[in-house]
Amino acid sequence: MEEQKNMELETSPERSSEHPRRRGIYLLPNLITSAALFAGFYAIVAAIDGNYVHAGAAVFVAMILDGLDGRVARLTSTESAFGKEYDSLSDMVCFGLAPAIVAYQWGVARIAEYGTIWERGGWLATFFFAVAAGLRLARFNSRPSSAGKDYFEGLPSPSAAAIVAAFVWFSSEWREPGLVGLIAAFLVTICAGALMVSRFPYYSFKKINVGERVPFAYFLVVPLVFILIALKPPVVLFVLFSLYALSAPAWWSVRRLRRRRA
């Protein structure tokens, strides 16, 4: 009777409806993940060499590739447990270590000229960002698969990395940012890290269906955004991702004010 009961549990609809991730290693999605990892590694090397324009651009390349590997895996039915873990490790390098080292290489060497306290503050700011990215990824991976996918809890690590990378990218055009510019860079780094480990809900954009009808105005807005990005990539990208980062705290503040008035 016990064996029969176990067989019934194994063949029940509830059990059969669950599709565990495969244990195999698939070439295409993991190859894209490796390309993203290379972009993150290149961002670190470029920052060490003092080429902050290439370093900032490499973080955005990693972000694009990171968005492709999961979609390719789902479209080709090649999702696996190995790919999930590999993607998470790649994210830690691309969106945790790489932006932190880029900001460190760009700012700490300059801010050290203003005193040891400023140097240590910059060092701690960049380290805090790396730790926040690791905590953000660990929290995301530990959530059950049945959790809601319409919103992210905390700022996604690629968006936080984009803010830091874009700021350093356009700030590298300054010949001498001065103490104010350096403090601003590290404040941006700290705020991006804090938003990653926050509990603000961020819209995931996973409900957008490319096959459904949209208003004609969208075809005017989207090309305009791409034109602006092409004209001044770091400035436009920094503004766009900063608005996304501030959207959740702003909406939380509006809801709280409404509750007080009610």
Topology as H/E string? HHHHHHEHHEHH
- The strand line-up of the biggest sheet is 1-2
Assigned CATH superfamily:
CDP-alcohol phosphotransferase transmembrane (TM) domain
Q: Tally the beta strands.
A: 2
Helix content: over 70%
The CATH class is identified as Mainly Alpha
Class by SSE composition: mainly alpha
Q: Could you name the CATH topology?
A: Four Helix Bundle (Hemerythrin (Met), subunit A)
* Name of the CATH architecture: Up-down Bundle
**Rg of Cα set:** 21 Å
- Number of domains as seen in the coordinates: 1
Contiguous uncertain segments of 5+ residues: 1-19
Termini Cα gap: 60 Å
**Continuous helix count:** 10
Q: How much of the sequence is in beta strands?
A: under 5%
* Major beta-sheet overview: 2 strands, antiparallel
| Average of the residue pLDDT scores | 83
| Bulk shape | globular
Question: What is this entry, summarized?
Answer:
The chain has 262 residues and is an all-alpha fold. The protein has helices at residues 2-10, 13-16, 27-48, 52-75, 81-111, 116-142, 157-171, 178-196, 218-231, 233-261; strands at 151-153, 201-203.
Description of the structure:
The protein has 262 residues and is an all-alpha fold. The protein has one domain (27-205, 214-256): Four Helix Bundle (Hemerythrin (Met), subunit A). It has helices at residues 2-10, 13-16, 27-48, 52-75, 81-111, 116-142, 157-171, 178-196, 218-231, 233-261; strands at 151-153, 201-203. Strands 1-2 form a two-stranded antiparallel ribbon. The longest helix is centred in the middle third of the chain and has 31 residues, at 81-111. It is globular and about 55 Å long. The model is unreliable at 1-19 (pLDDT under 50).
